[in-house]
Amino acid sequence: MPPLYLCIFLLANALFAATGGVLIAVVLISKRAMVTPTTENIAPNLLLAHAPLDGALFNAGLIFLTFIVSIPGLVFTTQRTWFKVHSWMVLGCIIVTLVIGLEIWYSTLKTRVNLAVMWDAHGPQIQQLLQERVTHLNNPYVSTNTDTHRQWQCCGYMTTPFHPDSTCPDAFAASAKPNCDGPFSNFANNFLDVVFTAMFGMVALDAILLLCGLVVLKKRAEEERYRHIDEKSKYTRI
Description:
The chain has 238 residues and is mainly α. 71% of the residues lie in helices and 3% in strands. It is built from 8 helices and 2 strands, in the order H-H-H-H-H-H-E-E-H-H. Strands 1-2 form a two-stranded antiparallel sheet. The chain is rod-shaped, with a radius of gyration of 25 Å.
C-alpha cells in the first residue's frame, strides 16, 4: 500500500489527465457540430468556435505530456529529477490555462461588440438559425420561464439588417420584433461565464497537483538523506 501522500498525488494526477481529455472532447465536438448547425446548437458552438480552441488543444497536449513525464518519476522511486521536471511542466499548464480563462473572461466585458463582429462574419444561414433559435428549459446556460421552450424571435443584430426567414418574413414583421443583440448577448454572457469558471477550476486543480508534487519531492529528499545517513553509519561500523 503506497503512503497517503502518494495516493493523493496519484488521484490529483489522474484528474489532471482527465481535464486534458475534456478539453480535447469539447474542441472536437464543437468543430463537428459546426458542420451541421441547428437552431439548438448554433449559439453555444458558435461561441466556442470563436474561443481560443487552438490554445485549448495545445493545453491538452501539454497536460498529457506532463502526465507521461510523471510516470518515470513514479517508477524510479529513488529519483527526483522526473518530479522536478513534472512540477515545472504543471506550472506551465497553470499559466496556459489561466491565460485562456482570462482571455475568455475579458471577452465578456465587451460581449455585444464581439458578437456584432461574429454576426457579420457569418452568412445568412447562420444568422437565420440564430433568429429562429429555440432555448429549452433544460439548457443550463440561460434563465428559464414557465414555457416548455423559449424562442429568441429576433430579427437582425443592432444595425445589421435581418435575413428573411420564418421568424422575420418581411420588414413589417421584423419591425415588431427586437434585435438579436439582447438574447444573444445574454446567452453568451451566461455560457461564457460557465466556460471561464471551468478554466479557473482547472487552474485550481493544477495548483493542487503542483503542491502534491512538491510534497512528494520533499518526502523523497528526506528518504534520500536518511539513506545517506544509513550508508555512512554502516561504513563507520566497518
